[in-house]
Each structure stands twice: as C-alpha cells, then as structure tokens.
Amino acid sequence: MLLVADSGSTKCDWLVSQSGKEDGKFSTIGFNPYFRTSENITAEIRKNTELCAIAPLVEELYFYGAGVSSLEMQKVVKDALAEIFVNAELTVDHDLLGAVYATSGDNTGISCILGTGSNSCYYDGQEVHEAVPSLSYILGDEASGSYYGKELLTRYLYKELPIEIHEAFEKEFNYTKEDIFTSIYQKPNANVYLAGFMKFLGRHVDHPWVKNLLFEGFTTFINIHISKYENYREVPVHFVGSLAVHFQDILKVACEKQGITVGEIIKKPVNNLLTYHWEKKCQKQS
Fold first, then answer.
1. For labelling, which of 2, 189, 208, 276 has a CA lying 20 to 30 Å from the CA of 62?
2. Is the dihedral of CA 227, 151, 94, 24 positive or negative?
3. Does the domain at residues 2-100+269-285 carry the CATH identifier 3.30.70.1230?
4. Which residues are paired to 68 by β-bridges?
C-alpha cells in the first residue's frame, strides 16, 4: 500500500493507493515542524481514526511538507510518522520537491508555492535549486495568504483602506486592535490566522484596490523569487496552492508583464504526487 501526503501550514492532504488509483483520502491539520513538535504531530494524526486504521498496511509513505527543508526538521516529522506507520518505508522532504514532482515531473522548470506561505525553486531534471531562501511569514512569504492578510490588517489599523472595504471589514469582523494583537502576538500559528483573511479578499476581488493589492504582491514575488533564476523566461513556471488557483487571472497578468510562460496551476499537488510515485513504483518492479 502506497500513501502520499502533502502538508502546508494549514492543512495536510493524504491519498492512499493499492492499484495506482485513489483508494482513500484523508485530511488533517498541517504539520510545519517549525510550529509543531513530533509529539504534537503524532497526537494530531491519531485523531483521524480512519487514517490510523490503515496505517499498519502502509508499505511506502511519501510526505512532503512546509518547513521540512533541513535534516533537523525532517527528523521532527519522520519521528512522528514512525510512531504510527510502523511498517512503512518513510520518505520525508520539503513541499517544494513535492510541488516539482506534481508539476514538472522529471522535466526542467520553475515551481512555486502560493498558499499560506510562499516559496520557489528551479528543477533541472535531477536536482532542486533555490535562488533565494524562504524567510517565512515575518520576513518573507511574499504573495502568500499570510502576506496578504498582514497587508490587509496593517492598512485597516492605519485607516488606509478604501471606505467601502474598511466598512465591509468592520461589519464582518468587528475586531479591535487588541483582538488582532492577541491573535498575532499571543496565540499560536499567527501565519494561519493571517492567511484566513484571504476569504475576505476573495469576496471583494472585483474591487480595484483588492485587485491592485494582489497584483502588486504577485509582482513582488516574481521580482524576489522567480526572476532570480537566469532562465526564468526560458522554462515554464508552475504554481501550486489555493491562492494561485483562486486568483490565477491576476497572477497570469503579472507573469505576462514579466515575460513569464505560465505552466501548470494546481490547487493540491497530492493527486499528481500519487500518480508520480505509483509510476516510479511500477518502473522499479518492471
């Protein structure tokens, strides 16, 4: 039995297969090891009784996750998974590599993640190359959900929003500065809290201010991340994540203005990852 998992900071999608097709799917919270311990990850997985029921049958598990970019962070996740998937050969790696396999496969290209956080890499067909590091939601994560959420809250508190957006925000949330500060500075997972405001922006995406905010954010991401690869205008640039899918019209315009050829735009890489690893499994057996 083959199990594939793709984890962001907010949500983790799991697909299991015995035949090359989806035989079961599961959902848990996301497991970013910068914000979760091994014990916490194990406890959260155990809450999904259906996933735990098939755990002893899993022979191969491929887990790709946000924050799993070093051996130290990989160990946090791997130790947690080993407690539950006791019979499985475990492969734990960065979500960027998962994005590569889900979009480029074994072909060259640039793959980007635009979800709660953001990142990019170039894949030469054998190795992943990062031109600049991901700086997470405080220092970086340009064009991510947490980035746009931070921009929205900052403009709201500074009273810089257009009046109709300001009034709509107050009507929906009725937050004080203290409410916002508590959620960001005192409660865990501030990045997830910030990204939650993408739903509000999505409902007002036809407003010129929101469109411009999204466009400027995408342009910033392109300038900081994508344009750092020398051949960024010569290879397809792929995008993974719900934010990229929901706002792809604006994203495509930002890319077009920079001479970028947009490749795949997919919401969840887990289905493509299942196909990729099943095909690899079959190749090994043939």
1. 189
2. negative
3. no
4. none
